[in-house]
Amino acid sequence: MVRLLVVCLTLAFATIGAEAEAACREDRIELRGDWGTARFRIAVADTVPERAQGLMNVEEMPRMVGMLFVYDRPQRVSFWMENTLIPLDMVFIGADGVVRHVHENAIPMDRTPIFGGSNDIQYVLEINGGLSSEFGIAPGTEVRHPSIEEDQASWPCEAE
Fold first, then answer.
1. What is the extent of the structural domain holding 104?
2. Residue 29 is assigned to a structural domain of this protein
3. Is residue 17 part of a domain?
4. What torsion do the CA atoms of 134, 136, 139, 144 make, to the nearest 10 degrees?
5. What's the CATH code of the domain at 87?
Protein backbone atom coordinates (compact mmCIF):
# COMPACT_ATOMS: atom_id res chain seq x y z
CA MET A 1 0.00 0.00 0.00
CA VAL A 2 2.83 2.40 0.87
CA ARG A 3 4.59 1.73 -2.43
CA LEU A 4 1.32 2.25 -4.29
CA LEU A 5 0.83 5.62 -2.56
CA VAL A 6 4.38 6.72 -3.35
CA VAL A 7 3.99 5.64 -6.99
CA CYS A 8 0.62 7.43 -7.27
CA LEU A 9 2.00 10.60 -5.73
CA THR A 10 5.07 10.47 -7.96
CA LEU A 11 3.00 9.94 -11.09
CA ALA A 12 0.58 12.69 -10.12
CA PHE A 13 3.48 15.05 -9.51
CA ALA A 14 5.08 14.11 -12.83
CA THR A 15 1.95 14.78 -14.91
CA ILE A 16 2.04 18.54 -14.54
CA GLY A 17 1.28 20.11 -17.90
CA ALA A 18 -0.08 23.38 -19.22
CA GLU A 19 -3.62 21.96 -19.36
CA ALA A 20 -3.36 20.82 -15.74
CA GLU A 21 -2.83 24.38 -14.61
CA ALA A 22 -6.09 25.59 -16.18
CA ALA A 23 -8.67 23.52 -14.31
CA CYS A 24 -9.42 21.83 -11.01
CA ARG A 25 -8.12 18.28 -10.94
CA GLU A 26 -8.62 15.36 -8.60
CA ASP A 27 -4.85 15.12 -8.03
CA ARG A 28 -4.37 18.79 -7.11
CA ILE A 29 -5.62 21.10 -4.37
CA GLU A 30 -5.26 24.87 -4.24
CA LEU A 31 -5.34 27.15 -1.21
CA ARG A 32 -5.55 30.93 -1.06
CA GLY A 33 -5.58 33.63 1.55
CA ASP A 34 -4.29 37.14 2.11
CA TRP A 35 -0.84 35.49 2.12
CA GLY A 36 -1.18 34.37 -1.54
CA THR A 37 -1.81 30.93 -3.04
CA ALA A 38 -0.34 27.45 -2.79
CA ARG A 39 -0.92 24.33 -4.86
CA PHE A 40 -0.24 20.76 -3.76
CA ARG A 41 -0.30 17.47 -5.65
CA ILE A 42 -2.42 15.05 -3.64
CA ALA A 43 -3.68 11.54 -3.28
CA VAL A 44 -7.35 11.41 -2.28
CA ALA A 45 -8.52 9.14 0.54
CA ASP A 46 -12.30 8.94 0.20
CA THR A 47 -13.09 5.43 1.41
CA VAL A 48 -12.95 4.06 4.95
CA PRO A 49 -9.91 1.82 4.24
CA GLU A 50 -8.03 4.65 2.46
CA ARG A 51 -8.73 7.09 5.30
CA ALA A 52 -7.65 4.47 7.87
CA GLN A 53 -4.35 3.92 6.04
CA GLY A 54 -3.66 7.59 5.32
CA LEU A 55 0.05 8.36 5.24
CA MET A 56 1.06 5.58 7.64
CA ASN A 57 4.46 4.05 6.95
CA VAL A 58 5.40 6.71 4.38
CA GLU A 59 9.07 7.48 4.99
CA GLU A 60 9.25 10.73 3.03
CA MET A 61 7.01 12.93 0.96
CA PRO A 62 7.99 15.55 -1.62
CA ARG A 63 7.58 19.14 -0.42
CA MET A 64 4.41 20.13 -2.35
CA VAL A 65 2.61 16.80 -2.05
CA GLY A 66 -0.04 15.70 0.41
CA MET A 67 -3.19 13.69 1.01
CA LEU A 68 -6.79 14.90 1.08
CA PHE A 69 -9.21 12.97 3.29
CA VAL A 70 -12.77 13.33 2.00
CA TYR A 71 -15.81 12.47 4.14
CA ASP A 72 -19.37 11.97 2.88
CA ARG A 73 -20.73 14.71 5.12
CA PRO A 74 -19.55 17.34 7.61
CA GLN A 75 -18.72 15.81 11.00
CA ARG A 76 -16.41 15.86 14.00
CA VAL A 77 -13.10 14.21 13.06
CA SER A 78 -9.92 13.30 14.87
CA PHE A 79 -6.63 11.87 13.70
CA TRP A 80 -3.57 10.34 15.30
CA MET A 81 -0.06 9.66 14.12
CA GLU A 82 0.28 5.95 14.92
CA ASN A 83 2.63 4.36 12.35
CA THR A 84 3.11 7.76 10.70
CA LEU A 85 6.81 8.33 10.27
CA ILE A 86 6.97 11.99 9.17
CA PRO A 87 5.71 15.16 10.88
CA LEU A 88 2.53 16.46 9.29
CA ASP A 89 0.38 19.56 9.30
CA MET A 90 -3.34 18.74 9.35
CA VAL A 91 -5.61 21.31 7.73
CA PHE A 92 -9.26 20.80 8.75
CA ILE A 93 -11.73 22.14 6.17
CA GLY A 94 -15.51 22.65 6.19
CA ALA A 95 -17.99 21.66 3.46
CA ASP A 96 -17.65 25.18 2.02
CA GLY A 97 -13.92 24.74 1.42
CA VAL A 98 -12.89 27.14 4.19
CA VAL A 99 -10.18 26.12 6.67
CA ARG A 100 -11.57 25.82 10.21
CA HIS A 101 -8.49 24.66 12.09
CA VAL A 102 -4.81 23.84 11.51
CA HIS A 103 -2.76 21.47 13.62
CA GLU A 104 0.92 22.01 12.89
CA ASN A 105 3.76 19.52 13.14
CA ALA A 106 1.93 16.48 14.42
CA ILE A 107 4.47 14.25 16.13
CA PRO A 108 5.36 11.02 14.30
CA MET A 109 4.18 7.81 16.00
CA ASP A 110 2.13 9.73 18.61
CA ARG A 111 -1.22 8.14 19.53
CA THR A 112 -2.67 11.32 21.06
CA PRO A 113 -5.94 12.25 19.28
CA ILE A 114 -5.81 15.41 17.17
CA PHE A 115 -9.26 16.95 16.90
CA GLY A 116 -10.49 19.06 13.97
CA GLY A 117 -11.79 21.74 16.31
CA SER A 118 -15.45 21.77 15.20
CA ASN A 119 -18.32 19.50 14.21
CA ASP A 120 -18.45 20.61 10.57
CA ILE A 121 -15.28 19.15 9.03
CA GLN A 122 -15.67 17.40 5.68
CA TYR A 123 -12.09 17.49 4.39
CA VAL A 124 -8.66 17.17 5.96
CA LEU A 125 -5.48 17.99 4.07
CA GLU A 126 -2.23 16.49 5.34
CA ILE A 127 0.98 18.15 4.18
CA ASN A 128 4.56 18.12 5.38
CA GLY A 129 5.02 19.54 8.86
CA GLY A 130 5.76 23.25 8.99
CA LEU A 131 4.34 24.19 5.57
CA SER A 132 1.13 25.67 6.99
CA SER A 133 3.10 28.20 8.97
CA GLU A 134 5.52 28.81 6.12
CA PHE A 135 2.69 29.65 3.69
CA GLY A 136 0.32 31.29 6.18
CA ILE A 137 -2.41 28.63 5.94
CA ALA A 138 -4.80 29.35 8.80
CA PRO A 139 -8.53 29.45 9.62
CA GLY A 140 -10.25 31.42 6.87
CA THR A 141 -7.98 30.16 4.07
CA GLU A 142 -10.05 29.07 1.07
CA VAL A 143 -9.53 25.71 -0.60
CA ARG A 144 -10.43 24.61 -4.14
CA HIS A 145 -10.82 20.97 -5.19
CA PRO A 146 -13.38 19.03 -7.29
CA SER A 147 -14.58 17.14 -4.18
CA ILE A 148 -16.01 20.36 -2.75
CA GLU A 149 -19.56 20.79 -4.03
CA GLU A 150 -19.59 23.81 -6.32
CA ASP A 151 -22.82 25.27 -4.92
CA GLN A 152 -21.31 25.26 -1.41
CA ALA A 153 -17.74 26.25 -2.25
CA SER A 154 -16.43 29.65 -1.23
CA TRP A 155 -13.89 29.24 -4.07
CA PRO A 156 -15.50 26.92 -6.65
CA CYS A 157 -13.81 25.21 -9.52
CA GLU A 158 -14.47 27.06 -12.75
CA ALA A 159 -16.58 25.42 -15.41
CA GLU A 160 -14.40 23.52 -17.83
1. 2-144
2. yes
3. yes
4. -100
5. 2.60.120.1140
DSSP for 65-133, please give it: EEEEEEEEEEE--EE--TT--S-EEEEEEETTSBEEEEEEEEPTT--S-EE-SSS-EEEEEEEETTHHH
**pTM above 0.90?**
no
**Residue 149 is assigned to a structural domain of this protein:** no
Contact between 74 and 98 under an 8 Å Cβ cutoff? The reply is no
Instruction: Answer yes or no: is 157 within a domain.
Output: no
Work out how many domains the chain is built from and give that number. Answer: 1
**For each of the chain's 160 residues, which pLDDT tens digit applies?**
454 455 454 444 444 443 444 579 999 999 999 999 999 999 999 999 999 999 999 999 999 999 999 999 999 999 999 999 999 999 999 999 999 999 999 999 999 999 999 899 999 999 999 999 999 999 999 999 999 999 999 999 974 4
